[in-house]
Design brief:
41 strands; six-stranded mixed sheet; Rossmann fold; binds adenosine-5'-diphosphate; about 15% helix
Length: about 625
């Protein structure tokens, strides 16, 4: 198996540059993965860490099930192809391909067999006796590929292998590399800054920016469901159009106001049903529309905008119309329309462009994250609380003591993935789609519409759904009860302690060092494995001075005889489950409990299931 498992990988260069942050993904055997992003985003560094050419600052890397953090590049079962193919100029193509095998002292006949096979696969058999300088760029890159494939690696790593070639050759070589991938049946990881290359080659693509993974997805999903404005703008040519807008909903219609020029249009609310409900409150948003989702029309009745045309690009099969929503032709509302060329449009014209409301994208202006995701994060229910029960239409859901509220109107926020199949909420299933492996149902619960990710769905018209009540928030006139936090945080330091033990016949005192985490007065000795990870990530000196944070879930900690000193503040009773909310130093820690506790207690996190964060750099070390 040649799967590559990358767990929370970080790279901090000695000069402090955080080149890669929390890179986390599983690459399946035989996948073709592309890392793409603008120059300097960390894609080569990630690839070089996989190759073993760069040390890993934190995180774990395994290839074929073996952790290889400390394994030499030559022993990793990988082969790498670079942009500059670095062939030996004085050697023939044959010798270049055979070179690595000779170093490994393979028998002559075996070398010959491998070289001729590779040459055949790559179509360079007739060049085997030539020197690199007699060959074209494309042929030289084939030789470099040949040198890699004779090693029969588990994983092929390719770093911008085609960027030295001209556009036509690049397209041809892309197709050849894809064929090679099929033939070799191994895992390929390919780095490029060219989004077209990424889109045409990857089974999955990792889009990176400034050291962070933005989105990992299949090409079509990246195009249709970008998670933020960066991915939306980076993927696709011409670039997606972006406009600053404000949205106002009236019933089944949403008015879009383009704030830069004052233009307005309307789209059916059905097009924006998955949007965060807060976006209709008049906040400024980024609206994204791809060029092909605007079309020249004579009919201005539907969702449409007026465009002042500035110039036109005839591309043969299509026409790109450039213009502005501002009739002065100036201003920030520039727009590109992809037209089939059937409309006689010229510079200076004012045309009407129909907007495909079903393909709109919305992004928050501050975080630039999507507000119209493929799977909505949450939905809202307007309901009543009466006698400690939620009334949603005809449904009555008893509220547990942890959500005890006075009678009155309330707004309940329910995460889309907080629904269960066994419950009391009678729901009509309006529709159900497969959203990247998730069964996403639009449901009607007592007249309220929202989305639910269903654990399973067999075409039922109605379902009785449950809601994980510790994940909802309830807002009433008196305030908001927030969900139970998913993670606890405890500040700590990594320390060394000297232990004295009596040993041997004479009961001599022997000193030994133990390592662990210190939080307040509590000391937790840790395993060698954890200590090693801390030293690897922080270095010997920094390990003992860095401010660290332990992170663990309410299920990953228990009340114990010793540990973190805490004071129980209250018990949150959700019916089926109970949790203690405890004050522990500056932190509040939530603990799953079966028993009742009060006053001072001690908490013991489960160190087999914990994360450790270097707070200065916000790096997850473990
Ligand atoms: P990409 O391959 O996406 O162009 P790189 O992985 O080469 O990006 O670089 C990521 C970041 O790390 C950049 O800011 C780059 O300047 C920095 N970097 C790369 N190599 C080193 C190095 N040896 N020392 C310090 N910083 C480096």
């Amino acid at each position: 198996m040649s799967d590559v498992n990358i767990k929370h990988l970080y790279k901090v260069y000695p000069n402090g540059t955080k080149a890669v942050n929390d890179f986390d993904m599983q690459i399946a055997d035989k996948e073709f993965i592309v890392f793409v992003g603008p120059s300097g985003c960390g894609k080569s560094t990630t690839l070089r860490m996989i190759a073993g050419l760069e040390d890993i600052s934190a995180g774990e890397l395994s290839i074929g099930g073996l952790v290889v953090n400390d394994v030499e590049p030559k022993d990793r079962d990988i082969a790498m192809v670079f942009q500059n193919y670095a062939l030996y100029p004085h050697m023939t193509v044959y010798e270049n391909i055979a070179f690595g095998l000779r170093l490994r002292k393979l028998p002559k006949e075996e070398i010959h067999k491998k070289v001729t096979e590779a040459a055949e696969i790559l179509g360079i058999t007739e060049y085997l006796d030539k020197k690199p300088k007699e060959m074209s760029g494309g042929q030289r890159q084939r030789v470099a590929l040949g040198r890699a494939i004779v090693r029969e690696p588990k994983v092929m790593l390719l770093d911008e292998p085609l960027s030295n070639l001209d556009a036509k050759l690049r397209t041809q070589m892309r197709a050849e590399i894809l064929k090679l991938h099929k033939k070799l049946n191994t895992t390929f990881i390919y780095v490029t800054h060219d989004q077209v290359e990424a889109m045409t080659m990857g089974t999955r693509i990792v889009v990176m920016k400034e050291g962070y993974v933005q989105q990992t997805d299949a090409p079509k999903n990246l195009y249709d469901y970008p998670v933020n404005k960066f991915v939306a703008g980076f993927i696709g040519t011409p670039q997606m159009n972006f406009f600053k807008v404000k949205l106002t909903r009236s019933g089944e219609e949403v008015e879009i106001l383009f704030t830069g020029c004052g233009a307005k249009t309307k789209v059916p609310y059905a097009c924006l049903r998955k949007a965060d409900p807060d976006v209709f409150g008049g906040i400024e948003m980024w609206l994204g529309i791809r060029a092909e989702d605007l079309s020249v029309t004579e009919d201005g009745d539907g969702a449409a905008v007026k465009v002042k045309v500035s110039h036109i690009e005839e591309l043969g099969s299509e026409t790109l119309i450039y213009g502005n929503l501002d009739m002065s032709g100036e201003g920030p509302e520039g727009v590109i329309i992809r037209d089939d060329g059937s409309h006689p449009v010229k510079a200076g014209d004012v045309i009407t462009a129909a907007v495909n409301g079903r393909k709109l994208h919305l992004f928050y202006t501050d975080t630039e994250r999507t507000a119209l995701p493929r799977i909505p994060l949450f939905g809202r229910l307007h309901c009543k609380i009466q006698n400690c029960a939620l009334h949603i239409g005809q449904n009555v859901l008893p509220l547990p003591p942890a959500l005890d509220c006075s009678d009155g109107e309330c707004l309940v926020t329910v995460p889309t993935d907080a629904f269960t199949r066994d419950g009391e909420l009678e729901c009509e299933i309006i529709s159900c789609e497969d959203a990247g492996g998730v069964k996403l149902a639009e449901i009607d619960a007592g007249g309220e519409r929202l989305y639910a990710a269903l654990p399973q769905y067999n075409g039922e018209k109605t379902l009785r759904l449950g809601i994980d009540l510790k994940r909802i928030s309830v807002s009433t006139g008196e305030g908001t009860i927030l969900p139970l936090p998913a993670v606890n945080r405890t500040d700590c330091k990594f320390v060394k302690r000297i232990q004295k033990t009596a040993s041997g016949k004479g009961k001599k005192t022997v000193k030994s060092a133990v390592f662990g985490f210190q939080s307040g007065d509590a000391f937790f000795e840790v395993s060698n494995e954890i200590s090693q990870k801390i030293f690897t990530a922080l270095g010997i000196k920094k390990a003992f001075t860095a401010k660290l944070r332990l992170e663990y879930t309410p299920y990953g900690v228990a009340v114990a005889r010793d540990g973190i000193a805490a004071t129980v503040q209250k018990t949150l009773d959700y019916g089926a489950e109970k949790f203690l909310a405890c004050e522990a130093g500056e932190n509040t820690v939530y603990v799953k409990t079966e028993e009742n506790y009060s006053g001072k207690i001690y908490l013991m996190p489960d160190f087999g299931n914990i994360s450790v964060v270097d707070t200065e750099r916000e790096i997850k070390i473990i």
